[in-house]
TrEMBL record:
GO terms for biological process: base-excision repair. The lineage of its organism: Eukaryota, Viridiplantae, Streptophyta, Embryophyta, Tracheophyta. SUPFAM superfamilies: DNA-glycosylase (SSF48150). It comes from the Eukaryota. It comes from Solanum pinnatisectum. Zn(2+) binds at C122, H137, H295, C299. Residues 1-72, 316-343 are annotated as: Disordered. This is DNA-3-methyladenine glycosylase I. The keyword NAD does not apply. Residues 61-72 have a biased composition (Low complexity).
Amino acid sequence: MSSSPAKTGGDTRKILGPGGNRVRDSEEQKKKKKEGMKKTELRSKKAAASLTPKTILPVRSNGSVDSSYSSDSSIAKDMNFSKRGVERSTGVKKPAKVVPHGVEVEAAETFSPVVPIPLRRCDWITPNSEPLYISFHDEEWGNPVYDDTKLYELLALSQVLAEMTWPAILNKRHIFRKLFDNFDPSCLANVNEKRLRSLRENGNSLLSEPKIRAIVENAKHFQKIQQDFGSFSNYFWRFVNHKPIKSGFRYARQVPAKTPKSELMSKDLMKRGFICVGPTVVYSFMQVAGIFNDHLITCFRYNECNNNNINKHSQTKLVKTDTQGRDPVENNTHMSNDHLSLT
């Protein structure tokens, strides 16, 4: 007699899989697992998007649940990689740019400070040069000068160069000006012997007696030139036809100690009674007063002195010449017939 199996509560007994006690995943469980994976990927993408673009590499998704590469660990790895820098194909690492929050990388580049380029000066100006000497080079030496009192001061200081250097002269310039009445030729020309003796006593620690006497005595001959030529500036600039000479030296070793022009002016000054005005002294005077632009062509002052001359040349009072190319003062009876030609 056959009998049918008994029903237990109307439920069907679950079938065990081949693995033993583990039950096969139902379709509903598989669906939940896929949704969880999608949520994890969505969180990873949002975290990557919140970081600075251009510095974080995109996170790769991995569909394998059993894989050891997780989304969270990939984000941390990419963040550390962006801090260290991006390694190019050449193997050189470029540091990552740190910009303020909310500022674009291109805009942040404009905030970088601009480093000024140092000025290129003549070779005799070094990093160890005194600031006063550097200022003298940058503002005075080689500038065309047309004022008579200024010209006399520079002539006197050029005579002092035989005993002192320019830095030493500049440091004591205020003492020289006080001692020699601001190098005013009209004042020095009236110095008597008693006053000259006082100058020698007060300035004995600074200059030798011949230099002190030369600065005083030359003031008288300086005034004589002013009377003959209208101004010492007219006489002075006639040696170069009222136009500075641009030497165009590239190296300091090319700058000479004297030139034919300085020798010519030296002879003419001594002929007029000046003392301590050799060709070397006169050439130093021509350099500092701007007749010769002896700034090296690599120096920024070379072009500046040329431009200064263009601006001032139109204001300079030039001496008119007669039909034979001579100055009107040369026709005076007190002038010698063997007057030197300076043009």
